[in-house]
Specification:
Residues 1-20 form the signal peptide. Keywords: Signal. InterPro entries: DUF6666 (IPR046607). The chain folds into three domains: 20-82, no CATH class; 128-160, no CATH class; 166-427, Porin. 16% of the residues lie in helices and 37% in strands. The chain has six helices and 17 strands. α1 packs parallel to α3 (59-82). The radius of gyration is 26 Å and the shape is elongated.
């Protein structure tokens, strides 16, 4: 019963906060009272507090944010009218040839079809259309508008290599699965690269992606082996993004895992979703493989005088999950929640999050947990089939130099590179 007063106090505080937000949103504000919103800091990356608050933003918060933007524009206009701010002479643009899109700006030409973007007229993002004058890639564009030094490679043949959707990541991860023999979990470091680009051209809207992850875990061995664990993941495939409507893709994943054993396996991973016109996306993702790898090794369990033989066949989990993905109000960030099952009747819950912290950096975190069964059908018991992965990475966008613009480009990779969450093994016998 001692808990009840605390619960009552929390409910009272929550209700008071809600009513305060409603009153704040309904209160009229004058531009003069919002001078702080036009400071030079509003173009800076969002603070951690604002990033966390955006995860749980309410309608009142969005109304207040809209009023702040209106007040900011009104305040600046009043300063211009009073002569405190010099107006910009735009007449110099009349002599410029063609359109001059700003970096990161998406320009749509021609009629929109059902809210879905027209790839043939897309020129957005810091790609070739944004390198006019050579300011973006350190050299001019050729007669076709292609960035010469940075996006055309000639050896021995010339071909385009757009790099605006290139990203590097590095971080830490912890994971465990049946290959841990029901003993220690694995912890280590992950590093990788992911890249996306239009497939042949921007006319049809399809993109291609290619990425790789490396992982070094159990750097000091484990309780049953002195070996460290080294992994390599490769992901390649195609996808298509839209403004709203059907969106999806298909990739091939390969994993090499070297510990007290050596395993090579592959799988197919795909997703299909409906992207709503207003906000959010609901869909389904899966992994599928029937490739098996045989293990016949010996480990020395703690307290045992003789080695234990690990002998069996392992294959990747076939996972099936529904998900909901939504953008965040922090410059291109997004998060996704997943829930589903595996072909060997395990439950599945997971989530991943990407939040920009500077113009070139973002924080990426993810977790996935396969819930083991409590019956005796699992080999070795439920604790040996428990599978989980959690990681946090720092992502660098060297070419776009804006994690926000990377979150707006239609040809950024749709899939993350495979890791120990999306690619995990279990015994088949």
């Amino acid at each position: 019963m001692r808990v009840f007063p605390w619960i009552l106090t929390l409910l009272t505080a929550s209700c008071g906060s809600v009513f305060a937000d409603l009153a704040t949103a309904a209160e009229p504000r004058e531009p003069a009272k919002l001078q702080h919103v036009v400071s030079d800091d509003y173009n800076l990356p969002p603070s951690p507090t604002k990033a966390i608050r955006s995860l749980f933003s309410t309608d009142q918060d969005r109304v207040f944010a809209a009023r702040q933007r209106v007040a900011r524009a009104s305040y600046v206009a009043s300063k211009v009218q009073a002569g405190d701010i010099d107006t910009v002479d735009y007449s110099v643009l009349s002599e410029a040839s063609g359109e001059m899109p700003m970096e990161g700006e998406i320009i749509m030409e021609g009629p929109a079809v059902a809210g879905i973007h027209d790839p043939a007229t897309y020129h957005g993002g810091p790609g070739c259309s944004s390198c006019q004058g050579g300011s973006h890639c350190g050299g001019g564009c050729d007669s076709c508008g292609v960035c010469g030094p940075c996006e055309t490679i000639c050896f021995p043949l010339c071909f385009r290599l757009p790099l605006e959707n290139l990203s590097f990541r590095a971080g830490v991860e912890g994971f465990k699965g049946p290959l841990n023999a029901g003993m220690d979990g694995s912890f280590g470091f992950l590093y990788g690269v992911n890249w996306g680009a239009p497939l042949f051209s921007r006319d049809h809207g399809f993109g291609v992606q290619l990425g790789a992850n490396g992982s070094n875990a159990n750097l000091h061995g484990a309780s049953f082996t002195d070996d460290s664990r080294d992994q390599f993941f490769l992901t390649a495939g195609i996808f298509r993004r839209v403004d709203w409507g059907w969106q999806g893709g298909l990739v091939y994943d390969h994993m090499s895992d070297h510990w007290y054993y050596d395993i090579d396996a592959s799988q197919i991973r795909g997703e299909l979703s409906w992207k709503f016109q207003c906000k959010g996306e609901f869909g389904f993702w899966f992994t599928a493989s029937d490739e098996t790898s045989d293990i016949n090794e010996q480990i020395l369990l703690p307290g045992a005088s003789a080695p234990t033989i690990v002998n069996g066949s392992y294959q990747p989990h076939n996972m099936f999950a529904f998900f909901y993905r939504t953008p965040l109000e922090v410059c291109g960030g997004e998060m996704r929640f997943s829930g589903g099952w595996t072909d060997n009747e395990l439950g599945l819950v997971g989530a991943d999050l990407n939040v920009p912290i500077t113009k070139c950096l973002a924080v990426e975190t993810n977790f996935l947990y396969l819930i083991p069964r409590n019956d005796n059908e699992d080999i070795g018991g439920a604790y040996t089939s428990e599978t989980w992965n959690i990681g946090i990475n720092l992502v660098w966008y060297p070419r776009a130099c804006s994690s926000a613009s990377a979150g707006k480009n239609y040809y950024r990779p749709l899939f993350n590179v495979a890791n120990n969450g999306t690619f995990s093994m279990y015994p088949t016998e």
